[in-house]
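User: Quick one: structure for sequence A, then sequence B.

Assistant: Sequence A:
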Amino acid sequence: MADKPEKRSPAVGSPEETARREKRYNVPDACQQYIKLRVKRGDEFVPAILGNFSRNGILFESPVQFSQGEHTACTISISLVLSHEISFDIEVRYCYTDQVSHITGASIDTISDEIWFDAFVEVYDLIVLRQGSV
């Protein structure tokens, strides 16, 4: 009997992954100024641009490259309302070069504060609604 082929998880952000899990929140360019993401590289945090996120995954653009399977920490905050940062750990699923930056998709391993994450989602929704009404 032949071995079954290994089933791979869909890429973070792919249509298969998005349909299978909870809602993925895209971050419009107009909202980038309010949302601050920093990703740990070595002993320091580097700024990154948040592309989209959900409770299970994140897509971001950064000046540094990450390796598939690498584990690291992130912090996210909204500069408009919250002074509280949300920390979470990620595992890199993929990273590719796009001109001079790197696009990284990762799964979220742990979130430091689930309540603050939920509050972040609510504030994010308000920012997007405000941007749409201007």
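Sequence B:
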Amino acid sequence: MKQERKRLFIDIKTSAREREKLINLAVENGCNTVVFSLKDPFFKSKSSKCLKLTKRYALNIEAGGRDLPLLLPKRLFLFQPGLFRMEHGRRKMDRHFCPTNPKTISIIAQRAHFFISRAMEKMDAPRIFHLLPEEGHENTWCQCPACRAFRPAEQYLIAVNTAADVLAQFDSGAQLVYIDFDREPDAARVKPRDNLLVIG
């Protein structure tokens, strides 16, 4: 029988001491899974108290969270603004990006490859990743001529599908969690990949 995963999401800014307290408290309350940001030092560490704790309690390790912005570094905006979302005719560096730009998709795939490959070393099957949009800005997407053909939920799904394709290359049994906030699913033109796991 498949065990239900009860998750503790660890904020990347949480100190080492606070992490220990949180994990101990979570385990006492029936938690069996810890989720670290794709960028978290946990995935680079060879030895840490946090790593020892997760092993001692035989916790499932998952990666991700509100990590979608990690896949397109803001520093690229200065020289390649076309990678980023358009609002009222102007490119914006904040929030999300332009998912119909092939260069954007290429960078997202490269970055997803980097973060997924690094995280996988600390994860056991079945591996689960999370790739969620910026909280409170789920509908803040690109309004360029090409992107106007897609609703915000579809633009988000284009990006998530790209990462899901990369994940499938590493592990065909791994899953990527995403939020389904599409209010018109019957009209969707973008279909989720088979390795996506929906919440919401």
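The chain is about 30% helix and 15% strand. The helical segments are 16-28, 49-56, 102-120, 152-170.

User: Thanks, that's what I needed.
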